[in-house]
Amino acid sequence: MEFVNVQELVSTGVAEALAFYFIAALAITLSIGVISDKNVIRAGFLLIGVFGGISGLFFLLQAQFIALAQVMIYAVGITLVVVIALMLTNPRLQNEEAEEEAIASSEPALLKFLDSIRNGFPGLVAWIAFVTVYMAIRSEHWEQSTQTIGEDNIAVIGRALTTDYSLPFEFASVLLLAALIGAIMLAKAEKVEDTDTPREGIESGSN
Amino acid sequence: MNSLDAYTQGIQLISPEILVIVAILLTSVWDLFFPKLKGYTPWFGILSLGGAFAILCQQFGEPQRAFNGLFTVDNLTVTFGLITCVVGIIVILMTMGYEHHFRQNRGEFYAILLTALVSVMFLAGSTDMIMLFVALETLSICCVLLSGFQKRDAKSGEASLKYLLSTAATTATLLYALSFIYGLTGATSFDVISQKLQVMSVGSGSMFKMLLIALVMSAIGFKLSVVPFHMWTPDVYEGAPTPVTAFLSIGSKAGGFVVAMRFLLDVLGTAYPDWMLILAGLAVVSMVAGNLIALAQTSFKRMLAYSSIAHVGYILIGLLAFSTEGVQSMMFYIIVYGLMNLGAFAGAIIFSNETGSDRIDDFAGLIKKRPWLAIMTSICLLNLGGLPIPPAGFLAKIFVFKAGVGIEQLSGSSLSGLPSAMLQHQALSGGIPIGWILVLVALVTSIPAIYYYTRVVIMMIVPEPSEKVANLSERSQYVGSPQEGPWLALTACTFAVMLAGTFMVSPIMEVSRQAALSISPERQREIGLKIDSTTPTKSMIETVPDYGLRQRISLR
Amino acid sequence: MNAAEIYKLSRLAIFWLSVTFGAVWVACWGVGVFIPSLITGKMPFLLQVDNPSTTVVFIADLLRSLTPILSLLVFIPINAMFMVLFERRSLALFTVRMGPNRHGFDGLAQTAADAVKLLFKEDITPRGADAFMFTLAPIIFFAPSIFGALPLLAAVTNNHDLFKVANLPTGIFYILAAASIPVVALVMAGWASNNKYSLVGGLRSAAQAISYEIPLVLSLVTMCLLAGTLDVVEIVEQQKGGILNWNILGGGALSGYDKLAPYWLNLVDTSFDTSAMFGQFYPVPWLSSIMAFVLVICTVLLFGLYLTGACAEINRIPFDLPEAESELVSGYNTEYSGIKFAIFFLAEFTNLFVVSSIATVMFLGGGDNPIPKWILDRLPLEPISNALGSLLSPLIKDLMFIDPATFWAAFWVIVKVYSIVFFAILVRGTLPRFRIDQLMDFGWKRLIPLALILFVVVVFARTWVVCHG
Question: pTM here?
Answer without folding.
Answer: 0.84
